[in-house]
Amino acid sequence: MPDATGGGEAAFILISPDGAADPPCDDNTVNIDIIRGDITTLHVDAIVNAANTTLLGGGGVDGAIHRAAGPELLAECRALGGCQPGEAKITRGYNLPARYVIHTVGPFWSGGKRGEPQTLANSYRNSLLLAVENRIKTIAFPAISCGAYGYPIREATRIAIETTREFLATDDKIDKVIFVVASDEILRVYQRLL
Questions:
Q1: What is the reported pTM?
Q2: Does domain 13-17+30-193 correspond to CATH entry 3.40.220.10?
Q3: According to the 3-state scheme, what is the secondary structure of the chain?
Q4: Over the Cα atoms of the chain, what is R_g?
């Protein structure tokens, strides 16, 4: 199957937080999983789109989500009036297996001196808040800002994991968070940090 960036083959590989390739545990705690593959094929309540400020589609994950969802997604996004970095907005999923798409705009990397870490953390936090507000139980995130926006992978991954864990420690309404990555390099960083 094509990966989330629109090219190549990507098989799903599930990695549990301890780094073993085991299925997720079935308990009452929130599962955090890592998958290498195509976010547009996941059967979850919501997938997160690493969007641009217009919300009108682009390259990478953003373009793949718009292509898979169909033209109705673009029509709904036009009515949202864009999205500022760190904010999040929600739409229906249309032709996607996911019921919803949560669109968030991560920061462009400029050396870390322009509030990039706070903006990236806000992208994850605001996406999770929107998920709770919409009774979403399962959510999948791409590696926000790690593609064309140039955020260093290790630092972006650390922010993603820490922000998600902090949020889940104070709110128990989400059952599963999945980090979906499109490369072995990013997968290895998530494995090390988890």
A1: 0.85
A2: yes
A3: CECCCCCCECCCEEECCCCCCCCCCCCCCCEEEEEECCHHHCCCCEEEEECCCCCCCCCHHHHHHHHHHCHHHHHHHHCCCCCCECCEEEEECCCCCCCEEEEEECCCCCCCCCCHHHHHHHHHHHHHHHHHHCCCCEEEECCCCCCCCCCCHHHHHHHHHHHHHHHHHHCCCCCEEEEEECCHHHHHHHHHHC
A4: 15
Q: What is the distance between the alpha carbons of residues 61 and 53, in angstroms, rounded to a whole number?
A: 14
How does residue 31 score in pLDDT terms, banded at 50, 70 and 90? confident
What is the residue extent of each domain of the chain? Answer: 13-17+30-193
Number of other residues whose CB lies within 10 A of the CB of residue 164: 22
* Cα→Cα distances 105→38, 112, 124, 143, 167, Å: 19, 16, 10, 12, 19
Lowest mean pLDDT among 110-114, 149-153, 190-194: 190-194
Is 62 catalytic? The answer is yes
* pLDDT at residue 19 tops 80: no
Taking residues 154-181, report their average pLDDT.
95
Lowest mean pLDDT among 7-16, 131-140, 147-156: 7-16
**Marked catalytic residue, from 18, 38, 62, 172:** 62
Neighbours of 125 (CB within 10 A): 18
